[in-house]
Hints:
By secondary structure, the chain is mainly alpha-helical. It is built from six helices and five strands; from the N terminus they run H-H-H-E-E-H-E-H-E-H-E. Strand 1 and strand 2 form a beta hairpin.
Amino acid sequence: MSIQSLLELRHLKTLLALREAGSLSRAAHLLNLTQSALSHQMKVLEDQYSTDLFERKSVPVQFSSTGLRLLELADQVVSAVDAAERDLNKLVQGAAGQLRIAVECHTCFDWLMPAMDAFRQRWPEVELDIVSGFHADPVDLLYKRQADIAIVSEAENDNGIKTYPLFTFDIVAI
């Protein structure tokens, strides 16, 4: 049986602000809240856990063992959420992500490695990954979502696959 938690991200941010500011009034100012609103928020948590989270008459504020445990959680969660939001913004802006490349033959590496270096210069936040090994059917990796792009010697006649020529050349005899 799972107990429904009242704990929200704003509660964790409030605890961090309280630690940083050292008092309810300064934490309220940091969070653009009234001291009454911040006190009410903390009271809801204390009622939820049936314990005080900090000593109200001390400056700087002294956290109880319960408050310290929630601060430990806040340090982990808020920093992880902040990092994820930064990553999401980069992904939405097209500045970050991963590009998995499947190659059909080893001769691609003569031109692929310099092309990847140039790509990294232009988009350093995008992680390039060559799907390990050479694949007789790299297009199958696209269908399985194990690759984002496949470099092949011949275009597939498939409506679900878009092909783009990389090079044009003539084979000649001398």
